[in-house]
């Protein structure tokens, strides 16, 4: 007598496994697509915050009277550099939804953006109109320290020490703020 044939018994199991793997692959693709949209928004927020802080730094009117206080962190200029942030966010396919100078004792700006393009159609319902949001803070930090001259009759009002180099100040030719301060992203 012959044994019963068992061919075709595994077919439903294979179909189920293949369908499950396909669903998981599509779900991972959707998560990856959302992650890529979020990373793009974060890049836009970083660029916009750096641009706003750079505009703040470059627009400050540096004088001998405010140089020491500015380098010591005692003077925090309150200037809105947000107009530059809109351009850089737009270049990175995002819109600025919030921009403000810092009010926590640091010199810089915080910028919030939302992506212009949504996550798109995916296997997950409701993602077709979702956009990514991101926030970044850029701060302006001194590269130099100021040492005022002890002698009031001195031709120089003092000296700057920048990364190990000491330079006597010329009262008629102050350095540019971009030489005295760097702009960088903060971790908050």
Short description:
Helices cover 38% and strands 24% of the residues.
Secondary-structure blueprint:
Elements: H1 11-59, H2 64-72, H3 82-91, E1 94-101, E2 108-115, E3 133-142, E4 144-148, E5 158-162, E6 165-168, H4 177-180, E7 181-185
Antiparallel strand pairs: 1-2, 2-3, 3-7, 4-5, 5-6
List keywords for this structure.
three-stranded antiparallel beta sheet; alpha+beta; four-stranded antiparallel beta sheet; elongated; 38% helix; single chain
Question: Can you tell me about this structure?
Answer:
It is a single chain. The chain has 188 residues and is of the alpha+beta class. It has one domain. The protein contains four helices and seven strands, in the order H-H-H-E-E-E-E-E-E-H-E. Strand 5 (158-162) and strand 6 form a beta hairpin. Helix 1 (11-59) packs antiparallel against helix 3 (82-91). The model has no long low-confidence stretch (mean pLDDT 84).
Overall spatial form: elongated
How far the N terminus sits from the C terminus, by CA atoms, comes to 78 Å
Radius of gyration: 28 Å
Helix content: 25-40%
- How would you classify the quaternary structure? single chain
Structural class: alpha+beta
Number of strands: 7
The strand line-up of the biggest sheet is: 1-2-3-7
Q: Are there runs of 5+ residues with pLDDT below 50, and where?
A: none
What is the N-to-C succession of helices and strands?
Answer: HHHEEEEEEHE
How much strand? 15-25%
Number of structural domains: 1
Mean pLDDT across the residues is: 84
Major sheet: size, sense and barrel closure? 4 strands, antiparallel
Number of helices: 4
